[in-house]
Amino acid sequence: MKALLLSLLLVPLAAFAQTPTIEISGANFRPLPVAVAAPLTQNEGAKGAANAFDTAFTFDLTASGILQVLDRKSFTADPKEGMAAGTITFSRWADVGAEALVKVSLADDAGTLRGELRLYNVGTGREDLKVTKDAPVKNPSLLAHRLADALYRHFTREPSPFLSRITYVKKAGNNRDIAVADWDGGNAVTLTKGGINILPSLSQDGAQVAYTSYRKNRPDLWVQRPGGDARMVVSDGQMITGGAFSPDGKRLAYSQAEGESAQIYVANADGSGAKAVTDTPYGLNTSPTWSPDGKRIAFVSNRGGSPQIYIMGADGSGVRRLTFQGNYNQTPDWSPRGDLIVFTARDERNAFDLFTIHVETGKVTRLTQDQGNNEEPAFSPNGRLVLFSSTRAGGTQLFVMTADGNNQLPLRAEKGTLLTPDWAPLADSQP
Fold it and tell me: Band of the pLDDT at 349, cuts 50, 70, 90?
């Protein structure tokens, strides 16, 4: 959808010490082969939640990019094998190529689903991690995300993306609605009810969504909390798009079209104090994205004749063109690590694919190719994964991959046409 926006504007008026850390970005990195046994259930309530838990937990580990989750069809161990090391025949797990073994036990305790996870080194039989988490029994996927996060932190010493939230547009007929969901697409909640609502962007705490809506018969910028009422924060010019919260949540950057041009503005989060930070009388400047320190903004501009990615100070100073390859580059998203910007580019075959560019060196890396159109990329909160939309499976669905373009998987999202995703952290009560 953001990819279409610039085209629209172009017409005259997007046991820690014992276990080595997995170096994800190392040149010799390989995913760790891990066997994830089916969860053991202690009572009927746990049995009822086990399938939903297992689906979410397995997806988290598979999509993480750090683990090679082995196919359970190959397992030869006794399914009734217990959690304790003394009950486990480790040779059976070694036979299927596992270097690590994950065991989970579930129990329903008066409406609270409690999960215990144990991680074993298959070669030594040593227990490397034991952790317990809980969640409401009605939300087994939350428990799955919490346990998967604990495992991810154990291997990498950094937070996972599994407790974060995403937002996207759900297309149905002539309607475009904004939805917010868990990182994998589960537990989706629709914020809007009909009409044209596009280009959502989450605040850094995941508590607010900024989006463009035509509910007043013109494209204005609105902000809404899940479960709360929407409020219009900017209604100026011909079109307001691309609202993006600053990392501290105190400012909004957006594009405002007037006449033959569109400029980037920065305002307070409530829409007050708006100031134009670009000034190209006949140019189009769109799709702002903040650097993680809030000091710079990357954006799209056609001031050089074709849509390209530029960088400037948050006050509009020091404008620098970043992309020079290709003639149609847009929808940038700045990595939370600050080193890369991921963006959409149209290639020589008129297909849309995803690329990253190093902010300082200008090195470009292609992430997708020969699998339909791939657009609207968004980095995970830890910068290790990229969320995007793709037509490779028919229609437009949401996919996730590692930041180097590997391990591309469809999300477990609701069915339908899903567009323009965005990704942000969400504080969890159980880190």
Answer: confident
**Side-chain-side CA neighbours of residue 266 (13 Å):** 22
Distance CA 216, CA 349 (A): 39
Handedness of CA 340, 341, 342, 348 (dihedral sign): negative
d(CA 189, CA 56): 17
Would the CA dihedral through 161, 162, 163, 169 be positive or negative? Answer: positive
Tell me the pTM.
0.92
Outline where DSSP puts E strands in 183-334.
Answer: 189-190, 197-202, 209-213, 220-224, 231-234, 239-245, 251-258, 261-268, 275-276, 285-290, 296-301, 308-313, 320-321, 329-334
Q: What torsion do the CA atoms of 388, 392, 395, 399 make, to the nearest 10 degrees?
A: -30
d(CA 78, CA 99): 18
Q: Residue 429 pLDDT more than 50?
A: no
Two tokens, residue 123: 């070669």
User: Could you tell me which residue, 46 or 428, shows the higher pLDDT?
Assistant: 46
* Residues constituting the chain: 431
Long-range CB contacts (within 8 A, 24+) of 148-151: 148/56, 148/57, 148/60, 148/61, 148/64, 149/60, 149/428, 150/117, 151/61, 151/102, 151/117, 151/119
Contact 54/61 with Cβ under 8 angstroms? no
Neighbours of 390 (CB within 10 A): 23
- Cα 49 to chain centroid, rounded: 26
Report H helices in 32-89: 44-63
DSSP H or E stretch at residue 116: strand 112-121
Residue with tokens 């890396």: 365
Question: Residue 427 corresponds to which amino acid?
Answer: A
Q: Which residues pair with 220 in a beta bridge?
A: 213
- Number of continuous H segments (helices) and E segments (strands) in the chain: 4, 30
Closest of 254, 268, 165 to residue 207, by C-alpha = 165
- Which tens digits make up the pLDDT trace of 159-188? 999 999 999 999 999 999 999 999 999 999
Contact (Cβ atoms closer than 8 angstroms) between residue 263 and residue 285: yes
